[in-house]
C-alpha cells in the first residue's frame, strides 16, 4: 500500500497527528504553531519537568507565553508524555533533540541515535519522520535511514521484508532556523528548507510544514538541507570572527570598531553588519561549524577557514579578561582579589538561555585569576548546571549601593531591561563588551570597551 495520498489528505484536512520529540527551544514553539492551526500534537521528552509543565499549561521558556500553552492544552490539541510507546498514534514524527559537541569538540550524536533507536522500535507503516536538529551532511541518510529501514514490526510478520523508504514510510531533513525572541521573525514566519530521501518524502514533508510555516523551500536531498543549515551558521561564525579580529586591530589603532560598523552599514548592498562581543554563545554558532569540520575529515579535507574563525572567537573571553585586568591596573588594583560583577549571563540579550554563554567562560577565567565574582541576570535567578560548568551562584540585585561595592562591573550581555544610565553612574569601573552604553546614547567616558 502507498500511504502518500492518505497522509496528504490527513495533512490538508488537518487531521494529521504530529508527534514532536524534544520539547526545548525548537520543539515547543513548533508544536504550538501546529496546535494554533488546529492540528493535534503529542509531545515527547525525557524531561518529566517539561512534560508536567506542558500538561499543566505552564511555560518553562521565558519568551514563550504561558497563554499559548494553556490554550493548546485546554483545547485538547496538545499533550505531552514520556511514554514513547504512543509514537504509533502519530502520523508525523518530528525530531528536535540536542546536537552538542562532546568533550573532544566532536559531534555528540547520542541524542539523535537514541531517538532513532526508539522510533525504529515503534515505527508503523505510513508515518513520516523528519529530523530538525542541526547536524553534519549525511546524518539522515547514514544514521536514520538504515535504522528505520530495519524497523522490527514489518520484520516480525516476515523477517525477509524491509520497510521501504518512500513506500512504507517517509523521511526528510528540515533544519530549524529558530532565533529565540527575535522580534521580527518567529517559527511560523521563517521559511523552511526541506530535503527528502525520495520525491514523495519531500512532497509530504513540505505539505506538513506548509500548514504552519510561511514558505517551504524544497531541495534535492537531505544532505543539501543539512549543509544549508551549516552554511548559514558558519557564515555567522566567520563574520563574527572577522569583526572580533578587527575589534582587536582597530583598538590598537585607536579606532572604534562599532563606529566603523555603523558607518559601513550605510552601504545599501554587499555588506551585512555583524558585531563583536565577548565570545560566541548559544546552541548553534559555537557548535555547528565543528559538525562540518568533523565530517570533512572523513573526506580528507581540512576546514581551515572555519577553524580559524573558531580560534578567534574562542579567544574573545580571554581578550575581555585582558581588558578587565588593564582597567583594574589603571586604578592601581589587580585582578587577583578584585570584586567583579558580571552583568548578563544569557548568551544573548533578552533571553533566559545560558547554553555556551561566553559569560560562563568569563566567570571561569576571572575566578581562576583570583577575581571574586558575582553576577546579575534578570532572567536567570540561579546559574543552572550546564554540560561544562557547575557554579553555585545566584543573581545579585542591581542597586546603587550594590554596584558601588564592586571594583569593576563587566557588561557581558546587553539585556534591554538594564537601566544603563544608573549602572554607568554607580559603577566605579565599567567594561562594556557590547557597546551598550553608546548604543543607549550614554556618554561612555569612563567605560572601557572590550
Ligand atoms: N535553540 C535554538 O535557537 C536553535 C535554533 C536552530 C536550531 N537548533 C537546533 O535544534 C536542536 C534542538 O535544540 P533546542 O535548542 O531545542 O534544544 P533543547 O535542549 O532546548 O531541547 C531539546 C529537548 O530534547 C530533549 N531530549 C533529549 N534527548 C531526548 C530523547 N532521546 N527523547 C526525547 N527528548 C529528548 C531534552 O530533554 C530537551 O527538552 C539542536 O540540534 C539545535 O542545534 C536550535
Task: Describe this structure as you would to a colleague.
The protein has helices at 4-12, 27-36, 48-55, 66-74, 110-122, 139-149, 152-157, 199-210, 222-252, 257-264, 288-298, 304-330, 358-368, 400-404, 420-426, 436-439, and strands at 17-21, 40-44, 78-81, 92-95, 127-131, 169-173, 192-196, 216-219, 339-343, 372-376, 408-411, 430-432, 447-449. It is an alpha/beta fold and 450 residues long. The protein has an eight-stranded mixed beta sheet with strand order 3-2-1-4-5-6-7-8, sandwiched between helices. The longest helix is centred in the middle third of the chain and has 31 residues, at 222-252. The chain is elongated, with a radius of gyration of 24 Å. The model has no long low-confidence stretch (mean pLDDT 95). The structure holds nicotinamide-adenine-dinucleotide. Nicotinamide-adenine-dinucleotide is lined by residues 21-27, 44-47, 50, 96-99, 111, 114-115, 132-134, 176-178, 180, 283-284.
Using brief descriptors, characterize the structure shown:
single chain, about 450 residues, alpha/beta, 8-stranded mixed sheet, 5-stranded parallel sheet, 13 strands, about 40% helix, elongated, binds nicotinamide-adenine-dinucleotide
User: What is the distance, rounded to the nearest whole angstrom, between the alpha carbons of the first and last residues?
Assistant: 63 Å
- Rg, rounded, reads 24 Å
Q: Give the overall silhouette.
A: elongated
Note the beta-strand portion.
5-15%
Give the number of helices.
16
Structural class, by secondary structure, is: alpha/beta
Percent range of helical residues: 40-55%
Largest sheet: 8 strands, mixed
* Number of extended strands: 13
Low-confidence stretches: none
Widest sheet, order of strands:
3-2-1-4-5-6-7-8
Query: Which whole number gives the mean pLDDT?
Result: 95
User: What is the helix/strand order?
Assistant: HEHEHHEEHEHHEEHEHHHHEHEHEHEHE
Bound molecules: nicotinamide-adenine-dinucleotide
Amino acid at each position: 500500500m502507498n500511504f502518500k495520498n492518505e497522509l496528504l489528505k490527513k495533512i490538508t484536512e488537518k487531521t494529521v497527528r504530529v508527534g514532536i520529540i524534544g520539547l526545548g527551544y525548537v520543539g515547543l514553539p513548533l508544536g504550538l504553531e501546529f496546535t494554533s492551526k488546529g492540528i493535534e500534537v503529542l509531545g515527547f521528552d525525557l524531561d518529566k519537568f517539561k512534560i508536567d509543565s506542558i500538561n499543566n499549561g505552564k511555560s518553562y521558556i521565558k519568551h514563550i507565553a504561558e497563554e499559548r500553552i494553556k490554550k493548546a492544552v485546554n483545547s485538547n490539541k496538545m499533550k505531552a508524555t514520556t511514554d514513547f510507546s504512543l509514537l504509533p498514534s502519530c502520523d508525523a514524527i518530528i525530531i528536535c533533540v540536542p546536537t552538542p559537541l562532546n568533550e573532544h569538540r566532536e559531534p555528540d550524536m547520542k541524542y539523535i541515535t537514541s531517538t532513532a533507536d526508539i522510533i525504529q522500535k515503534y515505527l508503523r507503516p505510513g508515518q513520516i519522520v523528519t529530523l530538525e536538529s542541526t547536524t553534519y551532511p549525511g546524518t539522515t541518510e547514514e544514521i536514520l535511514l538504515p535504522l528505520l529501514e530495519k524497523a522490527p514490526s514489518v520484520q516480525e510478520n516476515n523477517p525477509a521484508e524491509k520497510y521501504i523508504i518512500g513506500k512504507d514510510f517517509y523521511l526528510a531533513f528540515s533544519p530549524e532556523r529558530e532565533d529565540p525572541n527575535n522580534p521580527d521573525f518567529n517559527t511560523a514566519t521563517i521559511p523552511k528548507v526541506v530535503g527528502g530521501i525520495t520525491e514523495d518524502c519531500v512532497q509530504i514533508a513540505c505539505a506538513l510544514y506548509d500548514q504552519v510555516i510561511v514558505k517551504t523551500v524544497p531541495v534535492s536531498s537531505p544532505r543539501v538541507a543539512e549543509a544549508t543549515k551549516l552554511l548559514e551558521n558558519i557564515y555567522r561564525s566567520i563574520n563574527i570572527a572577522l569583526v572580533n579580529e578587527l575589534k582587536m586591530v582597530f583598538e590598537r589603532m585607536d579606532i572604534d570598531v562599532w563606529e566603523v560598523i555603523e558607518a559601513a552599514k550605510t552601504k545599501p548592498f554587499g555588506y551585512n553588519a555583524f558585531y563583536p562581543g565577548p565570545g560566541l554563545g548559544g546552541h548553534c554558532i559555537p557548535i555547528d561549524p565543528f559538525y562540518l569540520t568533523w565530517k570533512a575529515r572523513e573526506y580528507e579535507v581540512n576546514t581551515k577557514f572555519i577553524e580559524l574563525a573558531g580560534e578567534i572567537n574562542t579567544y574573545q573571553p580571554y581578550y575581555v579578561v585582558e581588558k578587565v585586568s588593564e582597567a583594574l591596573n589603571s586604578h592601581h588594583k589587580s585582578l587577583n582579589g578584585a570584586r567583579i560583577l558580571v552583568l548578563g549571563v544569557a548568551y544573548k540579550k533578552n533571553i533566559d538561555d545560558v547554553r555556551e554563554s561566553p559569560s560562563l567562560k568569563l566567570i571561569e577565567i576571572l575566578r581562576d585569576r583570583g577575581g571574586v565574582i558575582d553576577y546579575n541576570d534578570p532572567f536567570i535567578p540561579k546559574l543552572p548546571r550546564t554540560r561544562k560548568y557547575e557554579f553555585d551562584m545566584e543573581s545579585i540585585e542591581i542597586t546603587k549601593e550594590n554596584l558601588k561595592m564592586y571594583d569593576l562591573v563587566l557588561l557581558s550581555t546587553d539585556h534591554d531591561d538594564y537601566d544603563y544610565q544608573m549602572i554607568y553612574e554607580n559603577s566605579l569601573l565599567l567594561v562594556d563588551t557590547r557597546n551598550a552604553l553608546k548604543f543607549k546614547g550614554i556618554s561612555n567616558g569612563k567605560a572601557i570597551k572590550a
